[in-house]
């Protein structure tokens, strides 16, 4: 008996997911700020079964490239 699998990928299998706290560390902001960004539509979020937000790492990294870096000593 052969077992077949589907070739369709779920949205969650497209890459690593980050918590609001992990995103906040990358952007050096408070986790509540990340939540506000998601509510404002500035950052797309996936909801877990428990209702928590998770963010696609690839999207976060892409947005992070557009953030100006702070110089040391300023």
From TrEMBL:
Query: What Gene3D superfamilies does the annotation carry?
Result: 1.10.1660.10
- Its protein name is Helix-turn-helix domain-containing protein
Where in the numbering of this chain does the Helix-turn-helix domain appear?
17-65
Tell me which Pfam families the record gives.
HTH_17 (PF12728)
- Name the source's superkingdom: Bacteria
Gene Ontology molecular function: DNA binding
Species per Swiss-Prot/TrEMBL record: Cellulomonas composti
């Amino acid at each position: 008996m052969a077992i077949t699998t589907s070739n369709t990928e779920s949205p969650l299998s497209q890459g690593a997911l980050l918590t609001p706290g992990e995103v906040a560390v990358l952007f050096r902001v408070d986790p509540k700020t990340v939540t506000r960004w998601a509510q404002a539509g500035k950052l797309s979020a996936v909801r877990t079964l428990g209702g928590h937000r998770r963010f696609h790492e690839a999207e976060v990294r892409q947005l992070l490239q557009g953030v100006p870096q702070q110089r040391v000593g300023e």
